[in-house]
Amino acid sequence: MAASEFKHLVVVKFKEDAKVDEILKGSENLVSQIDSVKSFEWGEDKESHEMLRQGFTHAFSMTFEDKDAYVSFTKHPLHVEFSAAFTAVIEKIVILDFTVAAVKSPVVVPP
């Protein structure tokens, strides 16, 4: 992983009436249509104690080649449209955007 990669990390608690499956499918659809997104992962917390979780339930992580690619993503019309729908179903959110400081790169197994 190059030191110049840029991460967009979003941790949320959805509103009670949120259609989470639709949001997850929408997220996956969004990133598949925008080339500047290098990778996308999401997960639902199943292991943390409620006290530590503070109500947050889902995390989304996107990797970009660099900060410029991230900025381009934030201005993309599909992202702008999706963000409005996403924000409408969020009760709590934390967003961290940062340049990656790689300490231990993933092991690549040759084919």
From TrEMBL:
<protein>
    <recommendedName>
        <fullName>Stress-response A/B barrel domain-containing protein</fullName>
    </recommendedName>
</protein>
<feature type="domain" description="Stress-response A/B barrel">
    <location>
        <begin position="6"/>
        <end position="98"/>
    </location>
</feature>
<dbReference type="InterPro" id="IPR011008">
    <property type="entry name" value="Dimeric_a/b-barrel"/>
</dbReference>
<comment type="subunit">
    <text>Homodimer.</text>
</comment>
<dbReference type="InterPro" id="IPR044662">
    <property type="entry name" value="HS1/DABB1-like"/>
</dbReference>
<dbReference type="Pfam" id="PF07876">
    <property type="entry name" value="Dabb"/>
</dbReference>
<dbReference type="InterPro" id="IPR013097">
    <property type="entry name" value="Dabb"/>
</dbReference>
